[in-house]
From TrEMBL:
Catalyzes the transfer of a N-acetyl-glucosamine moiety to 1D-myo-inositol 3-phosphate to produce 1D-myo-inositol 2-acetamido-2-deoxy-glucopyranoside 3-phosphate in the mycothiol biosynthesis pathway. Mg(2+) binds at residues 330-331, 333, 357. It comes from Streptomyces mangrovisoli. It is an enzyme of class 2 (transferase). GO terms for biological process: mycothiol biosynthetic process. Belongs to the glycosyltransferase group 1 family. MshA subfamily. Homodimer. Residues 236-410 form the Glycosyl transferase family domain. This is D-inositol-3-phosphate glycosyltransferase. Gene3D superfamilies: Glycogen Phosphorylase B.
Amino acid sequence: MSQYVSRLGRRSPAAPSRLRLHRRPRRVAMLSVHTSPLHQPGTGDAGGMNVYIVELAQRLAAIGIEVEIFTRATAGDLAPCVELAPGVLVRHVDAGPYEGLAKEDLPAQLCAFTHGVMQAWAGHRPGYYDLVHSHYWLSGHVGWLAAQRWGVPLVHAMHTMAKVKNANLADGDTPEPAARVIGEMQIVSAADRLIANTAEEADELVRHYSADPGKVAVVHPGVNLGRFRPADGRAAARARLGLPEGALIPLFAGRIQPLKAPDVLLRSVAVLLDERPDLRSRVVVPVVGGPSGSGLAKPEGLQKLAARLGIADVVRFHPPVGQEELADWFRAASVLVMPSYSESFGLVAIEAQAAGTPVLAAAVGGLPVAVRDGQTGFLVQGHDPADYARVLRRLADEPGLTDTMGAAAARHAQSFGWDTSAAATADVYTAATQAHRRRVRSHHG
Protein backbone atom coordinates (compact mmCIF):
# COMPACT_ATOMS: atom_id res chain seq x y z
CA MET A 1 0.00 0.00 0.00
CA SER A 2 2.96 2.29 0.58
CA GLN A 3 3.25 3.22 -3.11
CA TYR A 4 -0.18 4.82 -2.90
CA VAL A 5 0.71 7.11 -0.01
CA SER A 6 2.18 10.47 -0.96
CA ARG A 7 5.19 11.97 0.79
CA LEU A 8 2.87 14.17 2.88
CA GLY A 9 1.26 11.03 4.27
CA ARG A 10 -2.08 11.68 2.51
CA ARG A 11 -3.52 8.93 0.34
CA SER A 12 -2.89 9.63 -3.32
CA PRO A 13 -5.96 9.67 -5.60
CA ALA A 14 -4.28 6.82 -7.56
CA ALA A 15 -5.50 4.40 -4.89
CA PRO A 16 -9.19 3.73 -5.45
CA SER A 17 -10.58 1.91 -2.43
CA ARG A 18 -12.05 -0.83 -4.67
CA LEU A 19 -8.56 -1.68 -5.93
CA ARG A 20 -7.22 -1.91 -2.39
CA LEU A 21 -10.07 -4.22 -1.35
CA HIS A 22 -9.38 -6.54 -4.26
CA ARG A 23 -5.73 -6.92 -3.30
CA ARG A 24 -6.52 -9.95 -1.20
CA PRO A 25 -9.68 -11.47 0.27
CA ARG A 26 -11.16 -10.19 3.51
CA ARG A 27 -13.01 -13.40 4.35
CA VAL A 28 -12.21 -16.96 3.28
CA ALA A 29 -14.43 -20.03 3.49
CA MET A 30 -12.06 -22.86 4.38
CA LEU A 31 -13.35 -26.40 3.87
CA SER A 32 -12.20 -29.45 5.84
CA VAL A 33 -14.87 -32.11 5.40
CA HIS A 34 -13.31 -35.20 6.92
CA THR A 35 -11.30 -33.89 9.82
CA SER A 36 -12.13 -31.15 12.29
CA PRO A 37 -9.51 -28.57 13.27
CA LEU A 38 -10.80 -29.07 16.83
CA HIS A 39 -9.81 -32.77 16.90
CA GLN A 40 -6.57 -33.93 18.46
CA PRO A 41 -3.90 -34.95 15.92
CA GLY A 42 -2.98 -38.62 16.08
CA THR A 43 -6.58 -39.74 16.68
CA GLY A 44 -8.78 -41.23 13.95
CA ASP A 45 -8.17 -39.31 10.73
CA ALA A 46 -6.73 -36.29 12.53
CA GLY A 47 -3.09 -35.58 11.74
CA GLY A 48 -0.81 -32.98 10.20
CA MET A 49 -3.66 -31.51 8.14
CA ASN A 50 -5.55 -30.53 11.31
CA VAL A 51 -2.49 -28.72 12.65
CA TYR A 52 -1.96 -27.10 9.24
CA ILE A 53 -5.52 -25.72 9.07
CA VAL A 54 -5.58 -24.44 12.67
CA GLU A 55 -2.19 -22.71 12.50
CA LEU A 56 -2.71 -21.29 9.00
CA ALA A 57 -6.17 -19.93 9.85
CA GLN A 58 -4.91 -18.21 13.01
CA ARG A 59 -1.99 -16.58 11.18
CA LEU A 60 -4.22 -15.47 8.28
CA ALA A 61 -6.60 -13.85 10.79
CA ALA A 62 -3.63 -12.09 12.37
CA ILE A 63 -2.82 -10.43 9.02
CA GLY A 64 -6.40 -9.32 8.46
CA ILE A 65 -7.98 -12.24 6.56
CA GLU A 66 -10.98 -13.68 8.42
CA VAL A 67 -11.39 -17.45 8.12
CA GLU A 68 -14.51 -19.57 8.53
CA ILE A 69 -13.73 -23.30 8.61
CA PHE A 70 -16.54 -25.66 7.59
CA THR A 71 -16.17 -29.20 8.94
CA ARG A 72 -18.46 -32.21 9.41
CA ALA A 73 -20.20 -32.46 12.80
CA THR A 74 -19.09 -35.66 14.55
CA ALA A 75 -21.23 -35.30 17.69
CA GLY A 76 -24.79 -34.14 18.34
CA ASP A 77 -23.89 -31.73 21.12
CA LEU A 78 -21.49 -29.54 19.12
CA ALA A 79 -22.31 -25.84 18.86
CA PRO A 80 -23.08 -24.87 15.24
CA CYS A 81 -20.31 -22.24 15.47
CA VAL A 82 -17.18 -22.18 17.63
CA GLU A 83 -14.69 -19.32 17.76
CA LEU A 84 -11.28 -20.97 17.51
CA ALA A 85 -9.42 -17.65 17.78
CA PRO A 86 -10.21 -14.01 17.00
CA GLY A 87 -11.13 -13.92 13.30
CA VAL A 88 -11.36 -17.74 13.02
CA LEU A 89 -14.75 -19.46 13.20
CA VAL A 90 -15.40 -23.22 12.98
CA ARG A 91 -18.81 -24.11 11.54
CA HIS A 92 -20.12 -27.64 12.19
CA VAL A 93 -22.15 -29.02 9.29
CA ASP A 94 -24.59 -31.91 9.73
CA ALA A 95 -23.78 -34.53 7.08
CA GLY A 96 -24.43 -38.19 7.84
CA PRO A 97 -24.35 -39.96 11.23
CA TYR A 98 -22.13 -38.40 13.89
CA GLU A 99 -20.36 -41.58 14.91
CA GLY A 100 -18.76 -44.46 13.07
CA LEU A 101 -18.52 -42.99 9.60
CA ALA A 102 -15.23 -43.97 7.95
CA LYS A 103 -13.42 -41.60 5.59
CA GLU A 104 -14.25 -44.05 2.77
CA ASP A 105 -17.99 -43.49 3.40
CA LEU A 106 -17.77 -39.71 3.17
CA PRO A 107 -18.13 -39.25 -0.62
CA ALA A 108 -21.81 -40.27 -0.17
CA GLN A 109 -22.24 -37.36 2.30
CA LEU A 110 -20.75 -34.61 0.12
CA CYS A 111 -24.18 -33.57 -1.13
CA ALA A 112 -25.43 -33.14 2.45
CA PHE A 113 -22.26 -31.27 3.40
CA THR A 114 -22.58 -28.94 0.40
CA HIS A 115 -26.19 -28.26 1.40
CA GLY A 116 -25.04 -27.25 4.88
CA VAL A 117 -22.38 -24.92 3.47
CA MET A 118 -24.95 -23.33 1.13
CA GLN A 119 -27.39 -22.87 4.00
CA ALA A 120 -24.77 -20.99 6.03
CA TRP A 121 -24.00 -18.82 3.00
CA ALA A 122 -27.69 -18.09 2.34
CA GLY A 123 -27.89 -16.31 5.69
CA HIS A 124 -25.32 -13.71 4.57
CA ARG A 125 -25.39 -10.80 2.18
CA PRO A 126 -24.07 -11.46 -1.35
CA GLY A 127 -20.28 -11.36 -1.60
CA TYR A 128 -19.78 -12.40 2.03
CA TYR A 129 -17.00 -14.87 1.17
CA ASP A 130 -14.26 -13.64 -1.17
CA LEU A 131 -12.58 -16.99 -1.77
CA VAL A 132 -12.87 -20.73 -1.06
CA HIS A 133 -9.81 -22.67 0.19
CA SER A 134 -10.45 -26.44 0.25
CA HIS A 135 -8.24 -29.05 1.90
CA TYR A 136 -8.08 -32.67 0.60
CA TRP A 137 -10.09 -33.99 -2.33
CA LEU A 138 -13.39 -34.46 -0.45
CA SER A 139 -13.47 -30.76 0.42
CA GLY A 140 -12.35 -29.89 -3.10
CA HIS A 141 -15.63 -31.19 -4.52
CA VAL A 142 -17.68 -29.04 -2.16
CA GLY A 143 -15.36 -26.11 -2.84
CA TRP A 144 -15.72 -26.52 -6.60
CA LEU A 145 -19.51 -26.13 -6.35
CA ALA A 146 -19.44 -23.39 -3.70
CA ALA A 147 -16.88 -21.26 -5.54
CA GLN A 148 -18.87 -21.53 -8.77
CA ARG A 149 -22.15 -20.71 -7.05
CA TRP A 150 -20.68 -17.71 -5.21
CA GLY A 151 -18.67 -16.45 -8.16
CA VAL A 152 -15.38 -16.51 -6.24
CA PRO A 153 -11.98 -18.16 -6.82
CA LEU A 154 -11.17 -21.68 -5.60
CA VAL A 155 -7.78 -22.43 -4.03
CA HIS A 156 -7.18 -26.11 -3.29
CA ALA A 157 -4.55 -28.02 -1.29
CA MET A 158 -4.37 -31.76 -1.97
CA HIS A 159 -2.33 -32.71 1.15
CA THR A 160 -2.11 -36.26 -0.25
CA MET A 161 -2.81 -37.63 -3.73
CA ALA A 162 -4.29 -41.00 -4.64
CA LYS A 163 -1.97 -41.63 -7.59
CA VAL A 164 1.13 -40.91 -5.48
CA LYS A 165 -0.10 -43.05 -2.56
CA ASN A 166 -0.98 -45.95 -4.87
CA ALA A 167 2.49 -45.83 -6.42
CA ASN A 168 4.09 -46.15 -2.93
CA LEU A 169 1.86 -48.60 -1.07
CA ALA A 170 3.03 -50.54 1.96
CA ASP A 171 2.76 -54.35 1.65
CA GLY A 172 -0.86 -55.39 2.12
CA ASP A 173 -2.17 -51.81 2.28
CA THR A 174 -5.39 -50.97 0.43
CA PRO A 175 -5.04 -48.83 -2.72
CA GLU A 176 -7.04 -45.62 -3.02
CA PRO A 177 -10.22 -46.10 -5.12
CA ALA A 178 -10.60 -44.98 -8.74
CA ALA A 179 -13.40 -42.61 -7.68
CA ARG A 180 -10.87 -40.59 -5.69
CA VAL A 181 -8.46 -40.40 -8.65
CA ILE A 182 -11.27 -39.11 -10.90
CA GLY A 183 -12.37 -36.67 -8.21
CA GLU A 184 -8.85 -35.29 -7.87
CA MET A 185 -8.50 -34.86 -11.64
CA GLN A 186 -11.72 -32.80 -11.66
CA ILE A 187 -10.59 -30.52 -8.81
CA VAL A 188 -7.16 -29.91 -10.39
CA SER A 189 -8.89 -28.78 -13.54
CA ALA A 190 -11.47 -26.59 -11.70
CA ALA A 191 -9.23 -24.78 -9.17
CA ASP A 192 -7.89 -21.28 -9.83
CA ARG A 193 -4.79 -22.10 -7.79
CA LEU A 194 -3.33 -25.29 -6.30
CA ILE A 195 -1.11 -25.12 -3.22
CA ALA A 196 1.64 -27.76 -3.02
CA ASN A 197 3.73 -28.35 0.12
CA THR A 198 6.96 -28.88 -1.83
CA ALA A 199 8.41 -28.54 -5.34
CA GLU A 200 8.17 -32.33 -5.67
CA GLU A 201 4.44 -32.24 -4.92
CA ALA A 202 4.05 -29.46 -7.51
CA ASP A 203 5.81 -31.69 -10.08
CA GLU A 204 3.52 -34.60 -9.17
CA LEU A 205 0.43 -32.43 -9.73
CA VAL A 206 1.70 -31.57 -13.20
CA ARG A 207 2.97 -35.07 -14.03
CA HIS A 208 0.14 -37.23 -12.63
CA TYR A 209 -2.81 -34.83 -12.87
CA SER A 210 -1.90 -32.62 -15.86
CA ALA A 211 -2.12 -29.50 -13.69
CA ASP A 212 -1.31 -26.22 -15.42
CA PRO A 213 2.14 -25.34 -13.97
CA GLY A 214 1.09 -21.67 -13.86
CA LYS A 215 -1.70 -22.53 -11.39
CA VAL A 216 0.52 -24.41 -8.92
CA ALA A 217 2.18 -22.54 -6.04
CA VAL A 218 4.61 -24.05 -3.53
CA VAL A 219 4.01 -23.02 0.09
CA HIS A 220 5.90 -24.93 2.80
CA PRO A 221 3.82 -25.70 5.88
CA GLY A 222 5.10 -24.12 9.06
CA VAL A 223 5.72 -25.07 12.64
CA ASN A 224 4.58 -23.38 15.84
CA LEU A 225 8.03 -22.23 16.97
CA GLY A 226 6.65 -20.96 20.29
CA ARG A 227 5.40 -24.43 21.21
CA PHE A 228 8.03 -26.63 19.57
CA ARG A 229 11.40 -25.46 20.90
CA PRO A 230 14.27 -27.06 22.82
CA ALA A 231 13.00 -25.43 26.08
CA ASP A 232 14.79 -26.86 29.15
CA GLY A 233 16.42 -29.73 27.29
CA ARG A 234 16.35 -33.49 26.88
CA ALA A 235 17.09 -34.56 30.48
CA ALA A 236 14.25 -32.46 31.92
CA ALA A 237 11.77 -33.74 29.32
CA ARG A 238 12.78 -37.35 30.08
CA ALA A 239 12.31 -36.77 33.80
CA ARG A 240 8.80 -35.38 33.20
CA LEU A 241 7.82 -38.37 31.04
CA GLY A 242 9.41 -41.00 33.29
CA LEU A 243 12.03 -42.01 30.72
CA PRO A 244 15.58 -43.13 31.65
CA GLU A 245 18.13 -40.34 31.27
CA GLY A 246 20.91 -42.20 29.43
CA ALA A 247 18.71 -44.32 27.12
CA LEU A 248 18.61 -44.47 23.33
CA ILE A 249 15.04 -43.40 22.60
CA PRO A 250 13.88 -43.73 18.98
CA LEU A 251 10.35 -42.25 18.93
CA PHE A 252 7.43 -42.92 16.59
CA ALA A 253 4.70 -40.24 16.75
CA GLY A 254 1.71 -40.36 14.45
CA ARG A 255 -1.23 -42.35 13.23
CA ILE A 256 -0.67 -46.11 13.44
CA GLN A 257 -1.34 -47.33 9.90
CA PRO A 258 0.70 -49.19 7.25
CA LEU A 259 1.37 -45.96 5.31
CA LYS A 260 3.33 -44.51 8.27
CA ALA A 261 5.30 -47.80 8.65
CA PRO A 262 5.77 -47.92 12.44
CA ASP A 263 6.48 -51.66 11.90
CA VAL A 264 9.75 -50.70 10.16
CA LEU A 265 10.93 -48.99 13.36
CA LEU A 266 10.05 -52.07 15.44
CA ARG A 267 11.80 -54.41 13.01
CA SER A 268 14.90 -52.19 12.96
CA VAL A 269 15.06 -52.22 16.77
CA ALA A 270 14.84 -56.04 16.67
CA VAL A 271 17.76 -56.12 14.19
CA LEU A 272 19.76 -53.73 16.42
CA LEU A 273 19.19 -55.80 19.59
CA ASP A 274 20.04 -59.04 17.77
CA GLU A 275 23.39 -57.57 16.78
CA ARG A 276 23.95 -55.71 20.06
CA PRO A 277 22.21 -57.45 22.98
CA ASP A 278 24.27 -55.19 25.30
CA LEU A 279 22.03 -52.25 24.26
CA ARG A 280 18.81 -53.89 25.46
CA SER A 281 18.96 -52.39 28.94
CA ARG A 282 19.22 -48.85 27.55
CA VAL A 283 16.75 -48.79 24.64
CA VAL A 284 13.19 -47.47 25.03
CA VAL A 285 10.90 -47.23 21.98
CA PRO A 286 7.84 -45.03 22.57
CA VAL A 287 5.00 -45.31 20.01
CA VAL A 288 2.73 -42.29 20.52
CA GLY A 289 -0.49 -42.37 18.46
CA GLY A 290 -3.68 -44.27 17.72
CA PRO A 291 -4.76 -46.67 14.95
CA SER A 292 -6.10 -44.97 11.81
CA GLY A 293 -7.18 -45.70 8.26
CA SER A 294 -6.38 -49.25 7.18
CA GLY A 295 -4.62 -49.69 10.55
CA LEU A 296 -8.07 -49.83 12.24
CA ALA A 297 -8.61 -53.33 10.81
CA LYS A 298 -5.87 -54.61 13.16
CA PRO A 299 -5.60 -52.11 16.02
CA GLU A 300 -3.49 -54.54 18.08
CA GLY A 301 -1.27 -55.46 15.13
CA LEU A 302 1.73 -53.43 16.28
CA GLN A 303 1.63 -54.78 19.87
CA LYS A 304 1.51 -58.32 18.48
CA LEU A 305 4.42 -57.57 16.15
CA ALA A 306 6.52 -56.29 19.10
CA ALA A 307 5.79 -59.52 20.96
CA ARG A 308 6.62 -61.67 17.91
CA LEU A 309 9.91 -59.82 17.43
CA GLY A 310 10.77 -60.36 21.10
CA ILE A 311 11.01 -56.63 21.89
CA ALA A 312 7.74 -56.07 23.79
CA ASP A 313 9.84 -55.23 26.87
CA VAL A 314 11.43 -52.16 25.25
CA VAL A 315 8.38 -50.79 23.34
CA ARG A 316 5.98 -48.43 25.15
CA PHE A 317 2.60 -47.69 23.56
CA HIS A 318 0.99 -44.34 24.40
CA PRO A 319 -2.34 -42.95 23.19
CA PRO A 320 -2.17 -39.68 21.21
CA VAL A 321 -1.27 -36.61 23.27
CA GLY A 322 -1.94 -32.87 22.96
CA GLN A 323 0.51 -30.57 21.23
CA GLU A 324 2.21 -29.34 24.43
CA GLU A 325 2.94 -32.87 25.63
CA LEU A 326 3.92 -33.94 22.12
CA ALA A 327 6.62 -31.23 22.17
CA ASP A 328 7.95 -32.87 25.37
CA TRP A 329 8.06 -36.31 23.69
CA PHE A 330 10.07 -34.80 20.85
CA ARG A 331 12.50 -33.15 23.31
CA ALA A 332 12.90 -36.43 25.21
CA ALA A 333 13.65 -38.55 22.14
CA SER A 334 17.13 -39.33 20.81
CA VAL A 335 15.65 -39.32 17.31
CA LEU A 336 12.20 -39.18 15.70
CA VAL A 337 11.77 -42.09 13.27
CA MET A 338 9.53 -41.61 10.19
CA PRO A 339 9.81 -44.63 7.85
CA SER A 340 6.65 -43.56 5.90
CA TYR A 341 5.87 -44.91 2.43
CA SER A 342 4.39 -41.56 1.42
CA GLU A 343 4.36 -38.09 3.05
CA SER A 344 3.24 -34.90 1.33
CA PHE A 345 5.39 -32.97 3.81
CA GLY A 346 5.72 -34.67 7.18
CA LEU A 347 4.92 -31.87 9.60
CA VAL A 348 6.10 -33.86 12.65
CA ALA A 349 9.61 -33.93 11.13
CA ILE A 350 9.80 -30.13 11.39
CA GLU A 351 8.12 -30.09 14.82
CA ALA A 352 10.68 -32.57 16.23
CA GLN A 353 13.59 -30.61 14.75
CA ALA A 354 12.21 -27.35 16.17
CA ALA A 355 12.22 -29.09 19.57
CA GLY A 356 15.93 -29.86 19.07
CA THR A 357 15.71 -33.51 18.00
CA PRO A 358 17.14 -35.05 14.81
CA VAL A 359 14.95 -37.10 12.46
CA LEU A 360 15.55 -40.50 10.84
CA ALA A 361 13.20 -40.67 7.85
CA ALA A 362 12.47 -42.41 4.58
CA ALA A 363 13.54 -40.25 1.63
CA VAL A 364 9.97 -39.89 0.33
CA GLY A 365 7.65 -36.99 -0.53
CA GLY A 366 8.46 -33.79 1.34
CA LEU A 367 10.79 -35.38 3.90
CA PRO A 368 13.99 -34.52 1.95
CA VAL A 369 12.87 -30.86 2.18
CA ALA A 370 12.02 -31.14 5.88
CA VAL A 371 15.24 -32.99 6.86
CA ARG A 372 18.81 -32.06 5.84
CA ASP A 373 20.48 -35.42 5.39
CA GLY A 374 23.62 -35.78 7.51
CA GLN A 375 23.07 -32.41 9.24
CA THR A 376 19.68 -32.37 10.97
CA GLY A 377 18.96 -36.07 10.61
CA PHE A 378 19.30 -39.07 8.32
CA LEU A 379 17.38 -39.97 5.16
CA VAL A 380 17.11 -43.63 4.19
CA GLN A 381 16.33 -44.91 0.70
CA GLY A 382 13.63 -47.56 1.02
CA HIS A 383 12.26 -49.41 4.03
CA ASP A 384 14.83 -52.10 4.88
CA PRO A 385 14.91 -52.35 8.72
CA ALA A 386 18.68 -53.08 8.56
CA ASP A 387 19.30 -49.58 7.10
CA TYR A 388 17.40 -47.95 9.98
CA ALA A 389 19.14 -50.21 12.50
CA ARG A 390 22.52 -49.00 11.19
CA VAL A 391 21.63 -45.37 12.01
CA LEU A 392 20.24 -46.32 15.43
CA ARG A 393 23.49 -48.18 16.21
CA ARG A 394 25.48 -45.09 15.31
CA LEU A 395 23.32 -42.93 17.59
CA ALA A 396 23.82 -45.46 20.40
CA ASP A 397 27.61 -45.46 19.94
CA GLU A 398 27.92 -41.68 19.51
CA PRO A 399 25.57 -40.23 22.14
CA GLY A 400 26.82 -36.69 21.43
CA LEU A 401 25.42 -36.91 17.90
CA THR A 402 21.84 -36.39 19.09
CA ASP A 403 22.77 -33.04 20.66
CA THR A 404 24.93 -31.68 17.83
CA MET A 405 22.41 -32.71 15.15
CA GLY A 406 19.56 -31.59 17.38
CA ALA A 407 21.05 -28.09 17.66
CA ALA A 408 21.42 -27.93 13.85
CA ALA A 409 17.82 -29.23 13.52
CA ALA A 410 16.46 -26.47 15.78
CA ARG A 411 18.26 -23.82 13.67
CA HIS A 412 16.97 -25.39 10.42
CA ALA A 413 13.37 -25.38 11.71
CA GLN A 414 13.49 -21.62 12.36
CA SER A 415 12.91 -20.96 8.66
CA PHE A 416 9.57 -22.83 8.81
CA GLY A 417 7.48 -20.40 10.87
CA TRP A 418 3.72 -20.25 10.20
CA ASP A 419 3.89 -16.47 9.62
CA THR A 420 5.94 -17.15 6.48
CA SER A 421 3.40 -19.76 5.33
CA ALA A 422 0.45 -17.43 5.95
CA ALA A 423 2.06 -14.55 4.04
CA ALA A 424 2.81 -16.86 1.09
CA THR A 425 -0.76 -18.25 1.20
CA ALA A 426 -2.17 -14.69 1.17
CA ASP A 427 -0.10 -14.06 -1.99
CA VAL A 428 -1.64 -17.17 -3.58
CA TYR A 429 -5.11 -15.85 -2.67
CA THR A 430 -4.29 -12.55 -4.39
CA ALA A 431 -3.06 -14.33 -7.53
CA ALA A 432 -6.16 -16.57 -7.56
CA THR A 433 -8.44 -13.54 -7.21
CA GLN A 434 -6.73 -11.76 -10.11
CA ALA A 435 -6.81 -14.90 -12.31
CA HIS A 436 -10.48 -15.42 -11.50
CA ARG A 437 -11.35 -11.80 -12.39
CA ARG A 438 -9.47 -12.11 -15.68
CA ARG A 439 -11.31 -15.33 -16.49
CA VAL A 440 -14.72 -13.80 -15.69
CA ARG A 441 -13.91 -10.71 -17.82
CA SER A 442 -12.80 -12.79 -20.81
CA HIS A 443 -15.87 -14.99 -20.44
CA HIS A 444 -18.20 -11.97 -20.50
CA GLY A 445 -16.08 -10.13 -23.05
